[in-house]
Specification:
The structure is a single chain. It contains four helices and five strands; from the N terminus they run E-H-H-E-H-E-H-E-E. The chain has 154 residues and is an alpha+beta fold. It has a five-stranded mixed beta sheet with strand order 1-2-3-5-4. The longest helix has 18 residues. The radius of gyration is 15 Å and the shape is globular. It starts with 6 loop residues before the first strand and ends in an 18-residue tail after the last strand.
Length: 154
Amino acid sequence: MYPSPYIRFDGYREQSEWFEGCSAGREAGRRVHPALYVLVLAAGFWHYRNSGEPAVVTHLLRTREEQQSLYPGRAGLRSPHEFGRAADLRTRDLDGRTALEWAEWLNQAFEYRGRQGAMTAVCHELENHGQHLHLQVGPRDGLPAVPESFVVSG
């Protein structure tokens, strides 16, 4: 994946997951889903147009152990982060109305393909972990094979 002026990363981990995640050599569950790149880049573009600043990706991949640590009382709770299908973006620099408009725009542009009633973008706070924009790719969005090269040769 190429660098984008519309997004920044909260830390080295998120940055490396973003850039290494599209590698064909990584197992499917531990790489960023190709459709998630599209969502995050679109979200970053919207954020930049409305704030003049790039969006900040605060979380991408999560292990099962990290999920259980975040939500200790909910052992069976699974997260699309565990499967490379979710990203969290910072909202603390936006007023509440703008953050909700951000989620609304993404939901209008990208239909969630999965459990009925679920959305692609949700602006929320869970278990006192801070408000953020959660983006997710539904389970009915298949995972295409990731080629070694995106260059088409004749």
